[in-house]
Amino acid sequence: MAERPVPVPVERLGFEMPPEFATADEERAHRKERLAEALRLLGALGYEDGVAGHLSARDPEHEDCYWVNPFGRPFAAVAPADLLLVDGDGRVLEGERRVNGLAFAAHAAVHRARPAAVAVVRTQGPYGRALAALGELLAPITQEACAFYEDHALLDEYTGVEDADRTARALGPYKALILRNRGLLTVGDSVDAAVWWFVAAERAAQVQLIAGAAGKPVLIDHHGALATRERFGTDLAAWANYQPLRLRAAPPVASTP
């Protein structure tokens, strides 16, 4: 009889845990790198529409200031040096470009309401917008969708102009918000987690729309959905799931005038 394989030690799996930093400067550089990388990835995935779409990350030292992509610069072209440091009132403190003040206001409101949230993602994907047009929440019809079970909300109104404070109130303590007739917003305790939740919500919306078009999806029951969320719905799980995906990001780009 063949010998039973010996379990591989965790340290040999090459699985990286979220990093820790000795200084705020190191953490700032890491967040900016991850933010620029995430923008390039979301652009490659098609989650960009004209000048719409912003990602923001709280500065680790000045917690009422946030790094965000500049207005009008394509996601694929964003390097860390292109990011703007903007205060909660929308004033650019570092950077040579403009910020979309109206769009950034929602980010600032969410950051103020959620001090533990490091990053906010508010960009465009076809399936999230389609679900938002229906005014529906994500249903617990797959294991992946259960990550959002009772942990996302619907802002069930459309006024033509996004009300920043109303958006933050509607999000509440949850990881994701569906803005009716507009799309998705997600948050996380790292850039990686916030971006993964956006991608995961977009994919869950796609499956829900396909399943609904084919027939009547079978819902996972409350206890099953809750147990699944407790296992797969944490920001650490999101961070881990994002690591393979982030390898798809476009190569680093040099900042241009």
Can you offer a commentary on this structure?
The chain is of the alpha+beta class. It has a single domain (20-246), classed as L-fuculose-1-phosphate Aldolase (3-Layer(aba) Sandwich). The protein has helices at residues 24-44, 101-113, 126-134, 164-171, 191-214, 222-232, 235-246, and strands at 54-58, 65-68, 84-87, 92-94, 119-122, 152-155, 176-179, 183-188. Strands 4-3-2-1-5-8-7-6 form an 8-stranded mixed beta sheet, with helices on both faces. The mean pLDDT is 92.
Strand and helix order: HEEEEHEHEHEEHHH
Alpha-beta content class = alpha+beta
How many strands? Answer: 8
Major beta-sheet overview: 8 strands, mixed
**Intertermini distance:** 67 Å
GO molecular function: actin filament binding
Pfam family, one: Aldolase_II
GO cellular component, one term: cytoskeleton
Protein name: Class II aldolase/adducin family protein
